[in-house]
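README, section 4: Worked example with a bound small molecule

Sections 1 through 3 covered apo chains. Here we extend the same pipeline to holo records, where the ligand is supplied as SMILES alongside the sequence. The molecule in this example is NAI. Nothing else about the input changes; the structure line simply encodes the ligand pose together with the chain.
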Amino acid sequence: MAQQYRITLLPGDGIGPEIMAVAVDVLKVVEKKFDLQFEFQEALIGGAAIDATGEPLPAATLDVCRNSDAVLLAAIGGYKWDSLPSHLRPEAGLLGLRAGLELFANLRPAKIIPQLIEASTLKREIVEGVDIMVVRELTGGIYFGKPRGIFETETGQKRGVNTMAYTESEIDRIGRVAFETARKRQSKLCSVDKSNVLEVSQLWRDRITKLGAEYPDVELTHLYVDNAAMQLLRAPKQFDTIVTGNLFGDILSDAAAMLTGSIGMLPSASLGASGPGVFEPVHGSAPDIAGQDKANPLAQVLSAAMMLRYGLNQGAAADFLEKGVLQVLQNGARTGDIMSVGMQLLGCRAMGEALIQVLEE
Ligand SMILES: NC(=O)C1=CN([C@@H]2O[C@H](COP(=O)(O)OP(=O)(O)OC[C@H]3O[C@@H](n4cnc5c(N)ncnc54)[C@H](O)[C@@H]3O)[C@@H](O)[C@H]2O)C=CC1
Ligand SMILES: CC(C)CC(=O)C(=O)O
Ligand SMILES: [Mg+2]
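The generated complex, written as structure tokens:
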């Protein structure tokens, strides 16, 4: 009998529904090829949820996610909701989902795809062979620290406040994920912080260094985040696995995306100690191209592959999808963000169709 999985789909906003439709079609091919059965359930998050219910993360959404085997998320956010107070914005829905499911570890691979070297803004010799895994802490740091808000000073000025805080146990648990991840790769871990200025980073560096003693086979180095950003663009091949906090990981993973040609190619997995993971592209809802059939759906498809691998333990099905993506690119199919001379420019839907054709061959 086919193995059954309950998958919650969170298309969200902007290009979200367009790229999610492609991922679902692709997963239907996987079902057939691997004798799996996906029970898809769609739920509201972000701006779409605000419009329908007044809240960015309705309780019903969190419930259905908790009761599923994995969650596939597209993206949230858009101009329409930008002036709402921060706790009512679409982004609060995403943060609430990550916190609600205790998804403290965000794996963001940035691996150069040989077919896309020409799409990178960097020189071939700089990016060829790049294979980096960013392990980003996802439920702590400045996105969650208290106090936060916009307060009034004694002189009547507004003062915006956010707090970057990490406890030892929060650092240790993401540190362990990072050391274990590095061990399965090239056994090189670079921890990124700002410990020359921030106490929170001093504690971070201290704990990661202590943890390093338990992983003598992993070569541990440390970089300040400003230098790390520069090194990522100067000589990205020096990196294997990077571990860092929530804000620095958010920023560095967008920078790492450009090494590989486009943020439209980068997937991620958000994992906790137990329970369903959330699998989502690194990019956002791209409101500038939403509704125009221009989005690259491949980050979403590769997020579905990460879901198969990390969330459902279906490694062969994940390999199948990843190979299909390489093949469709090899065939010359390109969306605008990864277009180069001599290739075939496709819209989001047509890229999905080209991929399905490859997968069904
Ligand atoms: N995980 C999530 O849901 C995230 C949501 N956001 C939200 O998304 C909205 C837009 O944020 P931005 O800073 O503009 O970041 P973004 O990642 O949505 O877009 C940045 C640039 O990359 C392009 N891009 C992104 N994904 C693409 C794709 N699949 N194919 C082709 N081009 C793509 C966009 O057109 C844009 O020019 C905001 O509301 C933001 O808060 C931002 C990042 C993550
Ligand atoms: C939209 C934010 C909540 C987060 C973000 O940019 C990300 O996780 O990449
Ligand atoms: Mg981001």
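What to look for in the output: The domain at 112-266 is CATH 3.40.718.10 (Isopropylmalate Dehydrogenase). The longest helix spans residues 16-34.

Section 5 describes how to batch many such records.
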